[in-house]
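To the wet lab folks,

You asked to see what we're planning to order before we commit. Fair enough. Below is the target structure as tokens, and below that is the sequence we designed to fit it. If anything looks off to you, flag it before the synthesis order goes out.
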């Protein structure tokens, strides 16, 4: 027999005795180990600054296998969906946070997870099942199956009071009337207030030496409001302080509030006033301007031109300008050039449907990642148009000034507020970069 043929045959025999991770000729990897977890330890549910709920779970077995997970959701309970890997830096609903999760088998040393896996959760009332494939950062794959019961109560939140009825200055104090529902006022609030309709009204009285409302924590002025029916359906009222009105079709009930505290914060011209009283269990909040009590006057640059309304993926970009700016579109460059003297601004607002919704938008936490209720902060992106060749591009929200030469400021803080009266939109920008206001129709 040919000597070379003998060597080849011997080599093949040797290879056939070698054990491989891949089964011979099948191309299949061995099935990862499956761990059945039946014991649950719940961590404390938390809520991040973007309003997402984080659910820490520790699932274990009698054999000492243990999976520690953090799931992220929009709801106060764990919804039945499929969760994919994510990180705590960009926590999105439908993630498990790999950098806060780990697995250990048989009381071994825990290994952190990577973001490759998926977990499918089903929910039937308060009973959950969970299953899927996960990977550790070392690359080990495994499957988990779990079944457990978990009860989550709705998060207690302040009742939103959307209507500012009035704000008045009295001697040594200020009084704010805020309401929810459909409430009407049929008398002078300073004298003999009478409410009709259906809703709630908080009459909040706070001490103020100069008739202005400053950020801080206030003890309320106790309520002593009273009503007297001097004839059928005819009421006389008196007193003041802090009071709670339950307005109904046939009148209203009043509760004098003697305790509790009000916390006042302010961003630009937007106040947030939150009142909470443990004894009466009244917890309400108002967000919006209170011009009559504002301690600072903001001058806004008037933006009179809508240069462009550009819906994009998850955002709408608005290009607005002052009256003396001339914007010229270049078909060749697919962009605008600006001339004249004044200001123009790029505003990038969160949107999923290509419209600009009424509400308040805060600065996004991560450049280029705009989530619900946020505007995109400004930053410079270096576009590589050829190998090693970069072109700087302004991204996000940016304020420009033209006065012989162009200067720019990236908008990285503050608030953008949007409101409507019919189809007329008011957009207010308040930030360290600029304070500006646009009033007009949006070409959506």
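Sequence we intend to order:
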């Amino acid at each position: 027999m040919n000597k070379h043929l003998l060597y080849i045959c011997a080599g093949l025999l040797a290879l056939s005795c070698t054990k491989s991770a891949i089964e011979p000729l099948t191309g299949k990897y061995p099935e990862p180990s499956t761990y059945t977890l039946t014991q649950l330890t719940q961590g404390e549910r938390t809520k991040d600054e973007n309003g997402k709920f984080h659910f820490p779970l520790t699932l274990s077995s009698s054999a000492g296998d243990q999976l520690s997970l953090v799931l992220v959701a929009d709801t106060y309970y764990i919804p039945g969906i499929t969760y994919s890997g994510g990180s705590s830096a960009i926590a999105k609903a439908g993630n498990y946070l790999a950098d806060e999760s780990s697995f250990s088998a048989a009381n071994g040393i825990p290994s952190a997870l990577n973001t490759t896996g998926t977990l499918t959760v089903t929910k039937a009332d308060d009973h959950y099942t969970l299953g899927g494939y996960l990977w550790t950062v070392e690359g080990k794959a495994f499957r988990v199956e779990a079944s457990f019961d978990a009860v989550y109560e709705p998060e207690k939140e302040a009742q939103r009071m959307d209507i500012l009825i009035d704000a008045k200055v009295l001697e040594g104090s200020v009084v704010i009337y805020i309401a929810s529902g459909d409430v009407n006022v049929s008398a002078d609030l300073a004298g003999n207030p009478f409410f009709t309709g259906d809703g709630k009204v908080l009459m909040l009285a706070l001490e103020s030496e100069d008739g202005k409302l400053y950020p801080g924590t206030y003890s309320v002025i106790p309520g002593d409001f009273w009503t007297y029916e001097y004839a059928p359906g005819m009421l006389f009222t008196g007193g003041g302080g802090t009071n709670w009105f339950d307005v109904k079709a046939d009148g209203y009930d009043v509760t004098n509030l003697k305790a509790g505290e009000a916390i006042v914060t302010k961003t630009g011209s937007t106040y947030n006033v939150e009142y909470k009283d443990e004894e009466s269990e009244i917890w309400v909040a108002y967000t919006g301007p209170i011009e009559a009590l504002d301690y600072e006057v903001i001058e806004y640059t008037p933006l009179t031109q809508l240069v462009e309304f550009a819906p994009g993926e998850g955002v709408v970009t608005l290009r607005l300008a002052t009256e003396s700016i001339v914007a010229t579109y270049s078909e060749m460059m697919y962009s605008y050039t600006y001339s004249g003297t004044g200001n123009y601004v790029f505003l990038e607002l969160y949107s999923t449907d290509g419209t600009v919704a009424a509400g308040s938008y805060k600065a996004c936490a991560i450049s280029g990642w705009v989530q619900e209720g946020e505007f995109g902060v400004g930053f410079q992106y270096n576009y590589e148009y050829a190998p090693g060749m970069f072109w700087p591009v302004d991204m996000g929200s940016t304020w420009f000034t033209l006065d012989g030469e162009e200067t720019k400021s990236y908008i990285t803080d503050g608030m953008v507020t949007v409101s409507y009266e019919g189809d007329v939109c008011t957009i207010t920008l308040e930030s360290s970069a600029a304070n500006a206001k646009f009033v007009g129709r949006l070409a959506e």
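Structural context that might help your review: The two ends are 85 Å apart (CA to CA). Confidence is low (pLDDT under 50) at residues 1-26.

Thanks,
Computational group
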